[in-house]
Specification:
The chain has twelve helices and eight strands. The protein is an alpha/beta fold and about 260 residues long. The protein has an eight-stranded mixed β-sheet, sandwiched between helices. Bound molecules: D-malate. D-malate (MLT) binds next to loops.
Length: about 260
């Protein structure tokens, strides 16, 4: 499905009924990373999974992106869907950065948060420099080079053996991301604010969920986030790396179901 927003078109999938659950994908991915949840959580929620600007089938304007802009696009999407009531916002990795920006800017629209495989802090100076290097790589060698550099760390080591199809899907997802989206995201992630201090004031329920074998963002980040949140639940999923919802969909969905029933 497609929604015409004020300046761009966003593509999205929607399924199920009941409490709205907006799922925000990571970098450099698209909404198909949420396929197991779009298919299987239909009894627990009305699942909405958009392609962020610059991804999948959404428009990919060639301009600077920010986590705030990405979050504001999602508010426009909710408005377009007629969803004025608070919704549960879930984000994985970069999607988590956007979820925190959404909370910071549109708190009244948030019923609860799911922070998956993400971190609250900003990029370190070294991290910012790596974003600039990745931008140069993408411009010089193309998005396929970004996909190749990231692929070995996206899944748990054993997932590459047990689910080669998943690694294949992942590489396609990454390599198909428009260059404008990759450049836009890298700038948005490099310049995102530190949300660590925000955490202590989030009184809404939060599920912090992380793969125990995440090679991109260590599980200690989830523990640190959880320790600061006043109303949170922590789930560390075994045999899962960075893309835990795809690697262990049943365990991920079970945690989400329990969380959604808890408030
Ligand atoms: C992601 O998976 O969304 C990104 O790798 C996160 C990041 O680079 O900080």
């Amino acid at each position: 499905m497609r929604a015409q927003l004020s300046t761009i078109v966003l593509a999205y999938d929607a399924s199920g009924s009941g409490r709205p659950l907006l799922l925000i994908h990571g970098y450099p991915l698209n909404r198909t990373m949420w396929r197991p949840q779009v298919e299987n959580l239909t009894d627990a929620a009305r699942v909405i999974a958009p392609d962020l600007r610059g991804h999948g089938e959404s428009d990919a304007p060639a301009e600077p992106y920010s986590v705030d802009r990405l979050a504001d696009d999602l508010v426009e999407l909710l408005d377009d869907l007629g969803l004025a009531e608070p919704v549960v916002i879930g984000g994985l990795s970069m999607g988590g950065y956007v979820a925190l920006a959404f909370y910071r800017r549109h708190q009244a629209r948030v019923a609860g948060l799911i922070l998956a495989a993400t971190r609250a802090g900003a990029d370190s100076e070294a991290g910012k420099a790596n974003r600039d290097k990745a931008m140069a790589l993408a411009r010089e060698k193309g998005v396929g080079a970004i996909a190749d550099s990231m692929l070995p760390k996206m899944l748990a080591p054993e997932t590459y053996q047990t689910h080669p199809d998943l690694a294949q899907h992942l590489r396609h997802m990454m390599a198909d991301t428009p260059l404008n989206g990759v450049i836009g995201d890298l700038g948005a992630m490099r310049d995102r604010p530190d949300s660590t201090e925000l955490l202590g004031g989030i009184l809404k329920p939060v599920l912090v969920i992380h793969g125990q074998e995440d090679q991109l963002i260590p599980p200690s980040e989830a523990e640190a986030t959880f320790a600061r949140l006043p109303n949170a639940r922590l789930a560390l999923v075994p045999s899962a790396g960075h893309l835990l919802n795809l690697e262990q969909p049943e365990a991920f969905d079970a945690e989400v179901r329990t969380f959604l029933k808890s408030f």
